[in-house]
């Protein structure tokens, strides 16, 4: 993703998970490789380096705990206002209007993620239009959280998984495998990714899932 401009729409610093944008990326997205295809690299870590890493991980755990508590205590009406404001900003942005292919997450209310329902509905409301954007959304394919991004055309393509998070079924209504973004004919213009928190420089803190 070298050279891509990064857009980070925040609400209150370290209080609300914003959306992270990587528009106009001319390369394919990078996903976690399956164990069979991962390269094996021999690495050694000195005791000092390990102590530094442990300190960083500890700090991140503290920040995650603080942010989760703030999100849980957040007033629902304020959350709704911020969700709507963020989605409005995205939908009106020229880089969103001009994009042809994108990957986006499906928000999960129980995780206090920024709502993306209006964005997804806007993308999918005219599936047969010449200006239709091609949308890929996450599908977790195994217990190791290996993820693929699969193409959907309708909200009805989504089903709730074991954690009650919406994701695409791996095959469509006709029994055909859904297109994987790695096999897409055209490059992806835009990524909409979740994050637990961001600082004012746009640096992202995830949920610790790797």
Automatic annotation (TrEMBL):
<dbReference type="GO" id="GO:0030272">
    <property type="term" value="F:5-formyltetrahydrofolate cyclo-ligase activity"/>
</dbReference>
<keyword id="KW-0067">ATP-binding</keyword>
<protein>
    <recommendedName>
        <fullName>5-formyltetrahydrofolate cyclo-ligase</fullName>
        <ecNumber>6.3.3.2</ecNumber>
    </recommendedName>
</protein>
<dbReference type="Pfam" id="PF01812">
    <property type="entry name" value="5-FTHF_cyc-lig"/>
</dbReference>
<comment type="similarity">
    <text>Belongs to the 5-formyltetrahydrofolate cyclo-ligase family.</text>
</comment>
<dbReference type="GO" id="GO:0005524">
    <property type="term" value="F:ATP binding"/>
</dbReference>
<dbReference type="InterPro" id="IPR024185">
    <property type="entry name" value="FTHF_cligase-like_sf"/>
</dbReference>
<dbReference type="InterPro" id="IPR037171">
    <property type="entry name" value="NagB/RpiA_transferase-like"/>
</dbReference>
<dbReference type="InterPro" id="IPR002698">
    <property type="entry name" value="FTHF_cligase"/>
</dbReference>
<keyword id="KW-0547">Nucleotide-binding</keyword>
